[in-house]
Design goal:
By secondary structure, the protein is an alpha+beta fold. Helix content is 51%, strand content 10%. Among the domains are: 2-71, TATA-Binding Protein (2-Layer Sandwich), CATH 3.30.310; 106-212, Endonuclease III, domain 1. The chain has a five-stranded antiparallel beta sheet. The relative contact order is 0.13.
Length: 267
């Protein structure tokens, strides 16, 4: 077991931040299960700033340090954001103090966020669980998914997104979509490249850049962020003010705005 003492790490907030769909709470205890890179990790939050990761020191260093971006100083990023003297962002940073941008598997992120469009989180999670069920803890590779047809994907609940997933799988297998090449591109170039493929628009491309390529300057604009920019900033929010950490700002905004809406709804 590994004890992590970090004021900028809260597994519950990360799990509810919309960036990953294979983190689930186990029962009523403050224990969360993460499935990533073919491994399963239990994280037990035992104090406000203390978490216990149930893994060996070797696995912690080889997988989870990078996955949770634990080498990065999020306290420094918060201080940079707070220098803007923005009341909404000040509250957002305080509320989501334990958020971090996960460093996930690129292919899993591509598939997950193609599935995510115009979808809610519970349905996304359910679809991904069904997709992964035959493969234990592994996420199915492009070669495995190439054995599926559009009807198979529809039966998993993808609806019209089945065609989008079919297209990216076919292009990956044909070599016309190249993930290794994608990794070499700048954020701007990567987003433009991704948008060449059916079913990947501006928002999904930015999600892939942020969560799959770990480009912290990427800034996905979904319904929550669009609503926030419109209501809080009169439709004008300059992300360049927060470069190169605009994606971290986006995560704080997203998490906080959703919490405010839930309070209004009484949930």
């Amino acid at each position: 077991m590994i004890e992590v003492r970090n004021a900028d790490f809260c597994i519950e907030q990360i799990a509810n931040s919309g960036q990953c769909f294979r983190i689930n709470k186990l029962g009523t205890a403050d224990i969360w299960q993460i499935v990533a890179f073919g491994r399963v990790l239990a994280v037990h939050r035992v104090g406000r700033n203390i978490s216990v990761l149930h893994c060996s020191p070797e696995e912690f260093q080889s997988i989870w340090v990078d996955y949770f971006d634990l080498r990065r100083d999020y306290g420094m990023i918060k201080n940079l954001i707070l220098m803007a003297d923005d009341p909404f962002l000040r509250n957002a940073v305080s509320y989501g103090a334990g958020l971090r941008i996960l460093h996930q598997d690129l292919w899993e992120v591509i598939v997950s966020f193609i599935i995510s469009q115009r979808n809610n989180i519970s349905r996304i999670k359910s679809t991904i669980e069904k997709l992964c069920a035959p493969y234990a803890y592994a996420f199915p590779s492009p070669r495995i998914l190439a054995q599926y047809d559009e009807k198979d994907f529809c039966n998993l609940g993808l609806g019209y997104r089945a065609r989008y997933l079919m297209d990216i799988v076919e292009n990956t297998e044909a070599g016309t979509f190249d993930m290794e090449y994608l990794k070499t591109l700048s954020s701007r170039e990567a987003i433009a490249y991704l948008k060449n493929f059916n079913g990947i628009g501006e928002k999904v491309a930015n999600c892939i850049a942020l969560y799959g390529l770990h480009r912290l300057e990427a800034f996905p604009i979904d319904t929550w962020i669009s609503r926030t920019i419109r209501s809080r900033y009169g439709g004008n929010f300059d992300i360049e003010n927060f470069s190169p950490y605009a994606g971290v700002v986006q995560q704080y905004m997203f998490f906080y705005q959703r919490s405010l809406q839930r309070k209004r709804n009484g949930s």
